[in-house]
Every structure is written in C-alpha cells, then in structure tokens.
Amino acid sequence: MTIGSRTAKKQTPRPTPRKIPAAMGQPATGHQERPGRGILLVLLSTLFLASSDVAAKHLSASLPALQIAWMRYATFTLIMISAFGATRGALTLRSRRPGLQLLRGLGMVGSAILFISSLGILPVADATAISFISPILVTGLSVPLLGERVGPRAWAAAFLGFAGVLVVLRPGQGAFQLGAVLPVLAALCWACALVATRRVAADDSAQTTMTYSALVGLVILTLLVPLVWTPPGAAQVLTGAFIGFASTTGHWLVAQAYRFADASRLAPISFAQIAAVSVVAYLVLGAVPDVWTWAGAGIIAGSAVVMAREGRRATSRPTAS
After folding, report:
1. Cα 45 from Cα 259, distance rounded (Å)
2. In a domain? residue 72
C-alpha cells in the first residue's frame, strides 16, 4: 500500500472484511453513493418479487397457503445453508438478542402466511398494493416501541396511505370481502418485523438475522403444515421452489441496492413492484387491475414517499448543542 504525504496520520486498524455475502434481508453497513446502481437493483428485484407473488397466486388455487409458505421457507433455508455452509450457519445462531430474533421471525412468517392467504381472495395486484402500507405502520409502531418522534406531516401522510387502502378495498361495495383485510394484517406483521430489525441491527450481524428468519419460519411452518398437507405434484413442487428462490433473490437484491443509495431515494422506486406484478399477472394469469387499484396504489405510494422524505429530514436535522 502506498503512503501519501500525510505521514503523521495515525493508521487505525480496518474492520475485518466480510467473509460471507451481504445479507439478503437487510442493507449492508458499507455505503457507497451510486444511486443509479441502487435504482437498477431495486427495479430488478421487483421482477423477482412480482414473479414470486404471481406464482403463489397461481399455486393458491390448488394448495393451502400454509403449504405454499412452507415450500417458500424450505427453499429459503436451503439457500441459506448453501450460501453460508453448515459451520458458518451454526456460528450465525449466536445472537445477543435471541428473544427479539424469535419475535422478528414470527412477524415475518406471519406476514408470509397472511399475504399468501389473501391471494386466494384478492387479485395479486390489489394484495401487493395494500401490503405497501407496512412503512406507514412502522411509523406508528416506532412511537411506542422505539420512542421515536413523528411529525405532523408524517402523520398526515400515514392517514393518506390508509385512505389509499380504502380506495383499493372499497368497503361497502360489492368488490369488498371481509378476507380482504388479510394483506393489511400481513403488512402489520411485516411492520413488526421491521421494528424488531431496527432493535437487533446494533447487536447482531445481518447473517444472524437472516439465519434466524429462515429457521424460525421453517420450524413454525413444519409444525403447522401437517394439518393442511395436500400431496403435491411435480409441477407444484417446482412452482413452490421457484417461489422461494424468486422471493429470496428479490430481497437479496433489495439489500444490495441499499448499499448504493439512501432509503429515501429508493423507496419510491420500490413501488414499481405494483406495476411489475400487474404485468406478470397479465402475462401469466390474464388478470388486469382496475382503475381503483391503480388509484389506491398511487395514493399509498405518494404517502410512503412523503414519509420517507420526512424521515430523512428528521435524521439529518442537526441536534441542539
């Protein structure tokens, strides 16, 4: 290594380089400002996540939601084992916050079960649009659980987001069904998992968090799936494996994207998943979202963008000395 003219500068030891890939569920800590690359990665992730959701919608016509979720988590766990290896995988189970890791895992698997269950009732574009209220729910939960302060603009945006959900669901109309609240509950579980992620991020590595997510979900679903097990055919097994592969890859791409750009810049791009789901659903299922779905999705997206900007202002605001 060449040494510049600042010879008097004290050399401090650098952190140990990562020996395993960056986590597939959380942003890596090393940040490089390359927003173009981050945006491209998010756009690519929407194709994988949309394909996973549409495949789950297709499979929900023949298999129970619990079984589809089990296939997804089984594939997720196999990918984790392949990525980290048995030895490293065992090391990542050493958590400083095992209780919170368990709660986070429960929130994630609950979200998966509820969202996949909603696909048997709602068009996939509707369920996807509603699920994007999770950042709004995180804002509400961060006040009692994390002690964070939320400004009036953020609260106004949160209420606007809920209005967008009502536009999609249209309560009181013939299109509304009681089961349509399932994606709302799925978003609530996901929001709880995100809040737990904030709490454990300072104590555990991203690999530890991912390992707990995979194992907790697989154990829970393995205990529940015998209650509804339906012998799958070869095509159904392959579809279930594809769901797990596509969802894991999509989340990994999102994690990589956050290495290159801030959340406030990437959050609006993530709403491209609604458009991606609509295109894939049309190509595979022949489903076309109605105008209410697009209108509600636009309102939800706008509210989330406002909240992301407000969050960025809050974190960048200088503290009083």
Report:
1. 14
2. yes
